[in-house]
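Practice problem 4.
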């Protein structure tokens, strides 16, 4: 089991603008096996590629947080709803072209459920 101190990376799954911005901010990393901590999702990205990247990022012991555009997260909503690990934490973020919708956010839904707020 990896310690939280070993988790030092942020993974990014999103559209080109989001990933580029976060890479320019310094979150990009490619390890010795040429595995990156980011995935640019566009119209040509297959669902299996997206699912595989999400599974890979959740299994990596060096990733603390996975940032995913909410409109991309909608494509793998069932996987996100079934994911209950504390690390890496999955956070849904808005993109330039798709505003944030709190009603779709899986983390916010869990918090509301925890506090007994089932109103939608």
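Answer key:
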């Amino acid at each position: 089991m990896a310690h939280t101190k070993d988790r030092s990376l942020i993974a990014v799954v999103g559209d080109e603008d989001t990933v580029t911005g976060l890479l320019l901010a310094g979150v990009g990393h490619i390890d010795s096996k040429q595995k990156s901590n980011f995935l640019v999702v566009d119209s040509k990205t297959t669902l299996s590629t997206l699912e595989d990247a999400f599974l890979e990022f959740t299994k990596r012991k060096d990733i603390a947080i996975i940032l995913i555009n909410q409109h991309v997260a909608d494509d793998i909503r069932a996987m996100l709803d079934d994911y209950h690990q504390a690390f890496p934490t999955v956070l849904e973020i808005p993109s330039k072209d798709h505003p944030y919708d709190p009603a779709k956010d899986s983390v916010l839904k869990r918090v509301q459920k925890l506090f007994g707020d089932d109103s939608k």
